[in-house]
Amino acid sequence: MLPDAEPIPSNGVLLHVGVHKTGTTAIQAALADARPQLKAAGVTYPGRMQAQHRAALAVLGRPWGWNTRGGAVMDRSHFDKLARRTQRASGRVVISSEFFCEAPGDVAAGVVKDLGGDRVHVVVTLRNMGRLLPSSWQQYLKYGLTTPYERWLKDVFAAPGESKNMTPTFWKRHDHGDVLRRWTEAAGVDNVTVLVLENVDLSAQYRTFAQLLDVDPDVLVSRMNLTSNRSMTAAEAELLVRLNKKVKKELQWDEYVRYVRRGVALGMV
Predict the structure, then answer these.
(1) Which positions of the chain have pLDDT values less than 50?
(2) Strand arrangement of the beta sheet that strand 13-16 belongs to
(3) Tens digit of pLDDT for each residue in 236-266?
(4) Each residue's pLDDT tens digit, 16-53
């Protein structure tokens, strides 16, 4: 298990900023399913969606999907609505979206200010880079990437000027030192908790979130198997690479989401 964590203040806001591919989907599914129990314990998980991705994308001003074929930038109102709900809520509030980890320093500072300033406690979840690389590549395949793994890997680590910039968001997400610098400068070093999810029990993350929120750990631990988001096998990933090459140019983003992301890719895993 991870070391015990002290609860955030009774009116605190726990802001989980990711990073991507560190079990974020699973903890979000648990939080969403536990909304009634959390509410009874004085904890609000705002909205009705599994996570607060729309608010995070809105404050980043970045699109969801393919910009020129059906993707769209989320309206700022999504974040403003979340901020109002958070400010009005009594007791603790927990918010989770791994897209927040991509925020530049000024945006991170604005998020902390709008969500409550000193009330905000940031939690960052990390895994080692060796595990993150293939998992991240597979995630980009679900956005239509057609590049094989080894070529993508060389691009990620290319010297300045040599990269083809296939996935420009990768280092925004996974320069973990810089992610922590930005969020500690925004929230203050005493208001940041880092969970290193290596060589710990699968339940460790759920237990620590429950401790930070001062709720019975079983509220979240009992929900840790709600989702299956395993990595694809080499054969499954190769299928997706080939499928993307065949169909990507013929589809709009909403069609790609329906048939490939939620159809083929989700069906396989």
Answers:
(1) none
(2) 43-44, 92-96, 13-16, 120-126, 192-196
(3) 999 999 999 999 999 999 999 999 999 999 9
(4) 999 999 999 999 999 999 999 999 999 999 999 999 99
CA 187 to chain centre: 18
Side-chain half-sphere CA neighbours of 84 within 13 A: 6
0.90 exceeded by the pTM?
yes
One-letter amino acid of 43: V
Of 146, 159, 163, 214, nearest to 6 by C-alpha is 214
